[in-house]
Amino acid sequence: MVVSVTAFMPAVPVAHAQTGPELLIQPATQPLAAAGTAVKFNVSVANMPTFAGWNIYVRSTQSILDPTTITLGTFMPSGFESAHCIDGLGTSCDANDGPGVAHDGFASFGFAAGSGTLFTITYNAVAGPGTKISFPEATTENGNGGLNSLFDVAGANITGVPEVGGTYGSVTNPTSTTVNCAHQLILRQLSELEPTRLLPLILLTLLTLPASARQR
What we know:
Order of helices and strands: EEEEEEEEEEEHHH
Number of domains: 2
Distance between the termini: 54 Å
CATH class of the largest domain: Mainly Beta
Structural class: alpha+beta
Oligomer: single chain
């Protein structure tokens, strides 16, 4: 698989207030694009101490936004890729790879610090409404089974770096919608019962409502 290198793209917008190290998707949001359009997201770091490599998985819903290429940035000095896997195909793919996953590993002959773009993922826009461009966990691997790693110059993982994903198109919360619709259906059915049987069932239904729904 051919690996290309792009010119440096600024990775951290002025409005980003994070002061500690961070692994993030940029831009944070992009609107839905026409089917067949190429959509690009940067995988970047901000405020990093000295480091020399990474092993990073990025996930999307393949039926909405399908990764097609990974292009290295120039923030990190030259080195070699230890993994280059897209949709479960490529180099050094493992059990965590598969549809919608872009996975890149890199070891530098030098080192870098600060903020910049590690690599850019190009996606093919497939359909709506949208998808998260997400990392597999909230922070880099810290001994609790996380996948993503950022390595210091000795090859040790820099643990606990926050990971912040992005959003493409419109993303809803289906779980919340399902719960609300189910309770609305129950309440409509209860309204058809005789009054003497209605009160105990209403009380039981209210007790099972999520706290957010009871406050409405």
